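User: Show me a protein chain along with its predicted structure.
Assistant: Here is one chain, sequence first, then structure tokens.
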Amino acid sequence: MLRPKRQKERVKLSKDSIQKAKKIFSYLRPYRGVFLIGWVFLVLSSLIGLLFPLLMGQLLGGEASEASSMSGLLEALSINGLNSFAIALFIMFGVQSLFSFLRIVLFTQVAENTLRDIRKDAFSRLIYMPMDFFNKNKVGELTSRISSDIEKIQETLRTTIAEFFRQIVIIIGGIIFLFILSWKLALIMLATVPVMIIVAVFFGRFIRKLSRNAQDEAASANSIIEEALMGITNVKSFTRETFMLNKYGKAIDNIRALNIKSGIWRGIFVSFIIFCLFGAIVFIVWQGSLMTQGPNPELTLGDFLSFIMFTIMMGTSFGSVPDFYASIQKAIGATENLMSIIDTENEKELLKGNEKPSITGQVRFQSVSFSYPQRSDIQVLKDISFEIQENQTIAFVGSSGAGKSTIASLLLNYYPLTGGKIVFGDTQADHIDVEHLRSHIAIVPQEVILFAGTIRENIAFGRLNASEEEIIEAARKANALEFINAFPDQLDTEVGDRGIQLSGGQKQRIAIARAILKDPTILILDEATSALDSESEKLVQEALNTLMKGRTSFVIAHRLSTIKDADSIFVLDQGEIKEVGKHEELISLNGIYANLVDLQGVNSHQ
């Protein structure tokens, strides 16, 4: 199972995490030519940058003398005299600026192309994940995690890798130049490096842990916002604004505390680096000044100033390397998490069925047993068997939790069976191509979710290539055309997030129109009228009766008045079929169904 929350996991660079993160190179491969050219410009600009402290020191120290340790190199570069040094610096800045510009443009192009491919792949994996995946993982945390992980990878591909490499080049190149200038001063300067590296590793690990905890808390806080806004009607109706604010407040207080703690330790770390760095610089300046004194100085003034410039540049690089390294580690962790999503088996890989038989509407449940994967100890369906013929209507009734909606989920092959089999015609469900099977089934649920967009787009979701006339006809059959035409924009009316601008009855009729447009062989009505008022229920029921004509229909109902005419009614209790028959037959049994009828007063309406 994918775990987007990692609060209790100690994430560190391991062989496995690096192996997973390496898969990002498969996304970089199509753009490796451009990426390689970008690296060439990065190397050139970094190497040219090493000339700055050398030339600047010579410029400040006057003309290079024969005693200069770098006189041979300067002569090879044909640089001599103050004017030449200044001109060389301007030329260096110009060339370095051009190379840096080209590197940034090329790296950005590669990064954005790569991230586009990763985003597309990650969403394509998510959209095909089995239903159990979404039962185990919160949607808000998944979307938040993907978003934040993509941002980390984006910054790393664009900038962090390049800057990290640049600092390494500066450090290595600087050490070489320092030894050329003065091996004594170089050893003095390098005496502080091991200490800083050890401290950087120690602090870096601790700070990364705090940062990861803060990121996980941020993901949780985002999920609270999403849940509150998605269920805003419940929040307001129960006047739980203060409760949600307190809940969110606790989450962001945790984020604040973790980030402040992280900031304190970062401050300690940076302070330590600064103290060691500037202490080393003072000591080096002191020793270097002594080496420039006397009748036979060990260093020329120009070489000494170049040494100081190299030391300052290297000190800055040493100070920035831990942060860049930490960012790269975060990016590796982010890549690992994204690759975990991409590598998780989805329905295309789990559901191996490839047959495409004719779906006529004949369905058999043969000794079907089922438990949800995350609650394997609780049997939801126990040895269920029944058969429905073409164009028949069967209904399922029973108390909540009896297993009615689970049957609908199994018809759509959302979950693997624990036992038994479901057969469509003569073919087992797990042998049938899942897209082929679902293309012949439509469901009208109790809680209709419409997509943000227009009424036309939501109806056309049933069949994307439907004509305008077909959409209008589907709306008419669903008893929806009248209220649609009453809107100023008619079919172009925006429904709002999750259809919030429409009433419950209007949303149900849009869902029915969508199902009519799909023209399914098998229809599932999952308590489609249970949440409606009497007037809306009448209109919706009329639309449902139109929709059910000429189709095999599975009706899950709490309101028994809607299923009196069903060909068969199955009474479920604790996952078992207790009674079967038509309405009148079940009444005569004076059992569970008769009791439900009495409770609802259904017969009084006959």
